[in-house]
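Before drawing any conclusions, I looked closely at one protein's amino acid sequence and its backbone structure tokens, quoted below without any editing.
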Amino acid sequence: MSSALGFIGGTQLAPLELGPATISGCLYALGVQRVARTSRAVPGWRQACFYAGLVLIVGTLTSPLAVAADELFWAHMAEHLLLADLGALLLVLGLTGPLLAPLLRVGWIDKLRGLSHPLVALPLWALNFGLWHLPYFHEAAVRHDGTHAIQHLCFIAFGANMWMALFGPFPKPAWFGNGWQIGYILAVRMVGAILGNVFVFGGQAFYGVYLPGELMHGINPDADQNTAGAIMMVWESVVTLLLFGAVFFQAARESIERQELMELAARSGVELTADRARRAVAAGRGPELRARITAGGSAPIAPSDS
């Protein structure tokens, strides 16, 4: 038996999957241009995150890894982790409330915001994650390009929705503070860790569809599956640590921004509640609110409150 990783080579085009990425990039660029040179302008770091997410997704789908994903399970696992975890996360980090405002004016789209509620987003993500790893659905995705494209779109869409609960611009439930966010991260990572353990310690290989590729690369099917599980478990550990740091950093940054807005409002004689400041900062509209306060855009604070 050769290396458990085998040999990776070649590239591929995936028009069914690259189309949505191209459309998303164009719409994002138009949205950024619409709010440019205003108080609602999208920060450069958010733009960098979104475009990096698109580059990662497109690069993954056209890379040698994508070719190997049809032949080896470990490659398929790595591909999905890059798309559904890192790629989707970068897309979400690129979004702001003003950027999404035109879409949210469409009634049925606005109603979809409820899907990003933590108690909805997590079960939906876990259900999608689990279903696509059932042998019937997983092997169908490997065998049929159309199904494979749907699988990737589902992983990215449900992954992004899962991240929206943590890092998206929509207001979070008042109860969803740091403690619950840490619990949310642990729940997400636990689902991945459990599946990784199943692949490492579950016995014989679950997916016969990879057998021709495993034979071609000289890889034992059990070793292929064990490698895929190990990749997932290591990935979950690293991402969990990074997310803990990100949550604490975001909480500190938002706390400072809220405090600055409250102090600015008090100095300007403008009424601003803590809840309004919290919602504005969470939606990425802190600069816009700051501009309105400076311009006296809210009702003055009553003398008894000053």
Q: What stands out?
A: The CA atoms of residues 116 and 164 lie 6 Å apart.
